[in-house]
Design brief:
Elements: H1 2-12, H2 21-39, E1 61-68, E2 78-85, E3 90-94, H3 101-108, E4 116-121, E5 124-125, H4 131-137, E6 138-141, E7 150-151, H5 152-157, H6 165-174, H7 178-183, E8 191-192, H8 201-215, E9 219-223, H9 231-247, E10 249-253, H10 257-262, E11 265-270, E12 273-278, H11 280-286, H12 288-295, H13 299-307
Parallel strand pairs: 3-10, 3-11, 6-9, 9-10
Antiparallel strand pairs: 1-2, 1-4, 4-5, 7-8, 11-12
The protein binds adenosine-5'-triphosphate.
Transmembrane segments: 1-19
Protein name: ABC transporter ATP-binding protein
Domain ABC transporter: 61-296
């Protein structure tokens, strides 16, 4: 547990030195709270949390009538969620705010344990996975991806320390981080994070995606950035995600029309349930809520793309 505590503090960054304001403190506290929850989960291995490893092939994910509440007075976050992400498929989750999209990721990472129903990963009940192996198989690219206190190189190689230089250079180029590297005074060896150069949200997410490229996860959980990206970066990210989708199973919380268009299947969540699922073409004709989401939430990017 102490090793995990240190790891989380390292990951969350702000507790390395002075706390950088309320948001940092909040995420630190959330991490500590999560540790209690994680500690109480069954099946935790004795070997710590360093079990990141490559290979093994893409994993299928199924949710079967999953129920889950965060334990407060509010309505449960999941009230019987059922969907399937086939091996090597790309499934997009969409839905209004509070529908339960992020909760899907939290349950898959086992930050929390679901209350009812069944979640399987790779055909195995999620509760039967040793936690380190499960998390070692998943790359979770958050919207507000954390940066470690260290150099850019250390950040990129964190989950794949043995990756050779050519793979590192390739991941940097494909996520268009080379412009950042050129700009930094010591290139890849420049300290970043709260004790070094401050990076934008888009740069941090691209670092997280480069990390995922280097690691070759069996399941990629991606919470797409909502912030606007310039056309070059957006195209680069789309290419990388599509390439990752060829090697791994991808579950993405989609904020862009271009993403849902590329998804094999879109799952529309509403108030803790799956409202409907299908392809963009099927849903745009067949589902009122999806049509509304596509023309509002997903539309900003659509308008940009249309203008290009
Ligand atoms: P958004 O698009 O706004 O991120 P979402 O679809 O991802 O929303 P969730 O974050 O999964 O929705 O939230 C589902 C429900 O669970 C909401 O009612 C939310 O307030 C609640 N919830 C989410 N995280 C927590 C938490 N850590 N503690 C308590 N309640 C939570």
């Amino acid at each position: 547990l102490i090793a995990f505590l240190l790891y989380l503090f390292y990951l969350m960054g702000p507790i390395g030195g002075l706390v950088e304001g309320w948001t940092g403190l909040q995420s630190g506290l959330a991490a500590v709270r999560r540790i209690d929850e994680v500690e109480s989960l069954p099946g935790e291995p004795a070997g710590g949390f360093g079990g990141l490893k490559e290979g093994g092939g893409p994993l299928r994910v199924t949710f079967q009538e999953v129920t889950f509440g965060y334990g407060d007075e509010r309505a449960p976050a999941h009230k019987g969620v059922t969907f399937d992400v086939p091996t090597g498929g790309m499934v997009a989750l969409v839905g209004p705010s509070g529908a339960g999209k992020s909760t899907v990721f939290s349950l898959l990472e086992r930050f929390y344990d679901h209350d009812g129903g069944t979640i399987t990963v790779g055909g195995r009940d999620i509760r039967d996975w040793p936690l380190a192996e499960l998390r070692g198989s998943i790359a979770y690219v958050e919207q507000d991806a954390p940066v470690l206190a260290g150099t850019l190189r250390e950040n990129l190689l964190f989950a794949a320390p043995d990756a050779p230089d050519d793979r590192l250079a390739d991941a940097v180029a494909r996520t268009r981080l080379d412009a950042l590297v050129d700009r930094l005074p010591e290139g890849l060896d420049t300290p970043v994070g709260h004790r070094g150069v401050t990076l934008s949200g888009g740069e941090r997410q691209r670092i997280a995606i480069a990390r995922a490229l280097l690691r070759r996860p069996r399941l990629l959980l991606l919470d797409e950035v909502t912030s606007q990206l310039d056309a070059v970066n957006e195209q680069a990210l789309r290419d990388v995600i599509l390439e990752l989708a060829e090697q791994t199973t991808v579950l993405v919380i989609a904020h862009r029309l271009s993403t849902v268009r590329h998804a094999d299947r879109i799952v529309v969540l509403e108030e803790g349930r799956v409202r409907t699922a299908g392809t963009h073409e099927e849903l745009i004709d067949g589902d009122e809520l999806y049509r509304e989401l596509a023309t509002t939430q997903l539309a900003a990017e659509g308008a940009e793309a249309g203008a290009r």
